[in-house]
Amino acid sequence: MITKNWIVKIDRITSNFKNEFGELTPEQLNLKPDENTWSIVQNIEHLIIVNESYFPVINAAKESKYKAPFISKFDFVINSLGKFILNSVQPDRKRKTKTFPMWKPSLSVIGNDILEKFEKHQSALKEMIDGSKDIFGKRIVISSPANRYVVYTLDTAFNIIIAHEERHFEQAKELLPIVKR
Question: What is the block-wise mean pLDDT of the chain (181 residues), using blocks of 10 residues?
Fold first, then answer.
């Protein structure tokens, strides 16, 4: 079942973050090579912020209380936008993308407990997926939390979330040679 695949991927991503960054000092985790590059903790904090912004939307969909915008009536739009967003967050990072202001991480130093917070967050994400399994495959359409007119299916939303986490793991991993100097 698809939920099991998502949960396995989330466990792998969580493990990857802990294994790669768990032994770094707070200074190393917060190191920014320049103003335009996020630190490792900023990448992690960004994932928590983005993922948690989906929770109210998904909860409303689970409770049949979500009202999708009119644009969600058009399959072509749903499929096109979902595919576009999913392609834009793939881990290969061919292009740098800007995030919405609501999803930007803190500019200040972030505590070294970020990996613990991430692990707890990942557990909540898995619970969200498991608690949604009854509505998967029913073509439930939701909006991006950042833009009501960017619509895709709930299934696509979880694919986006997971690909986005993999992307930011790769982005954070690129900082290892710099932080370990």
Answer: 87 97 93 91 96 96 89 93 94 81 83 91 96 86 95 95 97 92 82
pLDDT at 1: 56
Q: Where are the alpha helices (DSSP H) in the chain?
A: 2-21, 26-30, 40-62, 75-88, 114-131, 154-173, 176-179
Per-residue model confidence (pLDDT) at position 98: 84
- In order of their start, the domains of the chain are 2-179 (1.20.120.450)
User: 165-181 in b/e burial notation, b at 16+ Cβ within 10 A?
Assistant: bbbbbebbeebeeebee
Whose CA is closest to 85, among 159, 170, 171?
159
The per-residue b/e assignment along 76-115, b for 16 or more CB within 10 angstroms, e otherwise, is: ebbeebbeebbeebeeeeeeeeeeeeebebeeeebebebb
